[in-house]
# Entry
Amino acid sequence: MTAKGTFDTADWNALPPFDDRDGVSLGQVTLRKTFHGDLTATSVVTMLVATTEVADSRSYVALERVDGTLDGRSGGFVVQHNAVSDRGAQGLRVTVVPDSGTGELRGLRGEMDILIAPDGSHSYTFDYDLLSP
# Structure
């Protein structure tokens, strides 16, 4: 199945870097999201970020706990983000953590694509399956 919609971000909170040397900085960021569309939910994201002296070369890994309703089923789940920008060439994989589904979302599996429009707005496409718990 496929769910689509938009999301907003808020409460971006970047802590001071915990390691900053030789032009490479490691830090932590937390933020909140509100999803609209086939996924109506809120989430909390905790990410670790690596930045370099090259503006378009950086990466992040994150865990995001999502709570709400997916195509009429209520519950929650966790997704893991793995993102790399190599001098502007970007790669992102957002995957449901196996067996993290709760409520009516037990057994959820899937991957989410995140798109950022030129105007800065965010949208998602979430391809998922619900396995028997």
